[in-house]
Amino acid sequence: MEVSDGNDWQALAKRIQRLEDIEAIKRVKYKYFRCFDTANVAEIADVFTEDVVLTVVGGVYKFELSGRDNYLAMVRDGAHAEMVTQHNGHHPEIDLEDDRTARGLWYLSDYVQEFRRKQHIMGSAFYRDTYVKERDGKWRIQRSEFERVWEISETIVEMPNVTFSYLATHGHRLPPGDVAQFKRDD
Amino acid sequence: MEVSDGNDWQALAKRIQRLEDIEAIKRVKYKYFRCFDTANVAEIADVFTEDVVLTVVGGVYKFELSGRDNYLAMVRDGAHAEMVTQHNGHHPEIDLEDDRTARGLWYLSDYVQEFRRKQHIMGSAFYRDTYVKERDGKWRIQRSEFERVWEISETIVEMPNVTFSYLATHGHRLPPGDVAQFKRDD
Amino acid sequence: MEVSDGNDWQALAKRIQRLEDIEAIKRVKYKYFRCFDTANVAEIADVFTEDVVLTVVGGVYKFELSGRDNYLAMVRDGAHAEMVTQHNGHHPEIDLEDDRTARGLWYLSDYVQEFRRKQHIMGSAFYRDTYVKERDGKWRIQRSEFERVWEISETIVEMPNVTFSYLATHGHRLPPGDVAQFKRDD
Known about the structure:
CATH class of chain A: Alpha Beta
Distance between the termini of chain A: 70 Å
Strand content of chain A: 35-45%
Radius of gyration of chain A: 20 Å
Helix content of chain A: 25-40%
Oligomer: homotrimer
Shape of chain A: elongated
Number of domains of chain A: 1
Number of strands of chain A: 7
CATH topology of chain A: Nuclear Transport Factor 2, Chain: A
Number of helices of chain A: 4
Structural class of chain A: alpha+beta
């Protein structure tokens, strides 16, 4: 009978931990997209570190924000009652840097119809994220860089036949009045 | 030389089993979508328990069905020869409840063009599934709840230029005559 | 105290290796799509074996090519500066055949607007791949079979409002002149 020595044991446990961490990090991002598109501000709060930073470059969205509270305000305003929105993160390329830090690269597909703005935006982008495992053992997004691959923005001339909208009942209510379209400012 | 004790050993094996189960459950759903969109009734049968229940709420599809045979009939009618259909399940959030039961949450993207019905439906939804590992060691879908996030349904005025359709040769042949559009009835 | 015997130990290590291999193979394909859509010929080279074979059947694309150099030429020409392109691989069904060979089945969603050709193509397909782990320990694509599920090809009558295009600055420059649309030749 062979007996595994301590080094082997530690090595196996570490490899399992790596696979578990990768799965856990994917789930952080999955929760992010699910909560974003359903305006679930309460649940999405748990995916960010308190000092999270988001940068968005390329196309009509262009901004940087810092801090969980500012991110949550963006989620609330970004998924309001007069729109449909879909963000899907594909192709997760997750690399652990150490036990508590990881990097992730995602291929985003996004589709938005903003009825008040009369603007339809679709395209793809890469997310380059940094994740940290905090003291409670949960992985969270500490930094997220959104970089466009392509984007098409069209004015909505005729209202589509929306047969269901979760956000219509659960999204943030916009104040009355016209809302300007997003435009490139560079 | 350190030696791992029995408890540690069992714990490692259990963690590996959990990762394997998660991968196996994802594949059940992948097979489901692949077979649905290609009208592969023979192969899809294996992803359901005999007592499977499906509930669909929100938007133009709205029904509940029970039992594998009824599900298979729905697959056959739902993917017929005069349509193109695409269902992609993203963001799998799989939680094992015990060795033989698991829950899964999926973010669906769906795109359907029904040429006989002259109806184009697209949107997104969540699937909340229950999976069980049956006596043969295979995970199967026991319960599936489909809940709409958004849906747009348009009448097809001009036939698109379909340059390939697998279903045209492999899908169920509709009997002659007009087919009514799906409509919300709530 | 129980002690795990050598057979158990090997079995656990093998199960971990299988999970790691599956994750590594997924990442090969993720890198493939990311590099294809950004015309990253330098980085994509590493995902192919030198004798890679690609077959494409069904719809307007129809060809077979052999060898990494020919594949790289196709990537360069296939993602040029006057287009937007998006290929997302969903639902990976990866099966290891032995330590160095694996098969993969993917559900592709593709969306292309070719502005010089004035052609908009969208659809879905299956990829059936063979992967081999080469001497440097890296998995690579040795064979890839693309089979259409559905495809719609429309002539672009009015240019969409492209608000960002990574390929416009990073893609291959087409020589001047008209470019013929892709057409089914079967």
